[in-house]
Design brief:
By secondary structure, the chain is mainly beta. It has one domain: Lipid/polyisoprenoid-binding, YceI-like (Lipocalin). 7% of the residues lie in helices and 61% in strands. Strands 1, 2, 3, 4, 5, 6, 7, 8 and 9 form a 9-stranded antiparallel β-sheet that branches. A hairpin with a 2-residue loop joins strand 6 and strand 7. The chain is elongated. The two termini are 16 Å apart. It comes from Mucilaginibacter sabulilitoris. This is YceI family protein.
């Protein structure tokens, strides 16, 4: 059984995030700092990656002052506490092949030093010594002590309510 480790190429990997509220949604990006994916006989068997929480960008707010204020709020203790916790991690705990290129992945997501299991489907394509992986992780922010304007913790928020789940659309490129 041939096992091969692939190093994640930060410059070719990213995460697109989407957060929703009653009145709409916001979206942006966050950088993948480093990591590895492991394949055995051409099949995904494990991996881990680190995200730079200080790199969060908002793409849908075009006014520079508003964008800067919003980015500061996402970096604050209401959300990611980026100064105290500049990194978040995901580590694969199990992989179940669904088809040749599709997998169901289970792992541990750590944000703000709080770890919870998450699972999601991902597609992986291999081309010589390069692999690409795409997956969407849905995260319940309240499990990571991000309670700001959550209906679970605050009443009568009306149209200021922010939904608990946010999406992380992960796009990783790694080389052997």
């Amino acid at each position: 059984m041939e096992t091969k480790n692939f190093e994640i190429v930060s410059a070719k990997s990213n995460i697109d995030w989407v957060g929703r509220k009653v009145t709409g949604a916001h979206n942006g990006t966050i950088a993948v700092k480093e990591g590895t994916l492991t394949l055995a006989n051409g099949k995904l068997t494990g991996g881990k990656f680190t995200v730079d929480t200080t790199s969060i960008e908002i793409l849908d707010v075009t006014d520079p002052a508003t964008n800067m204020q919003f980015a500061g709020h996402l970096a604050s203790d209401d959300f990611f506490s980026s100064e105290k916790f500049p990194e978040a991690t995901f580590e694969i705990t199990s992989v179940t092949p669904k088809t040749d290129n599709d997998y169901h992945i289970q792992g541990n997501l750590t944000i703000k030093a709080i770890t919870h299991p998450v699972s999601f489907d991902a597609a992986l394509t291999a081309n010589n010594n390069t692999i690409s992986a795409l997956g969407k992780i849905v995260v319940d922010r309240t499990k990571y002590n991000m309670k700001f304007r959550s209906g679970n913790f605050f009443k009568d928020l009306g149209d200021t309510l922010i939904y608990n789940d946010f999406d992380l659309n992960v796009n990783i490129t790694a080389v052997a």
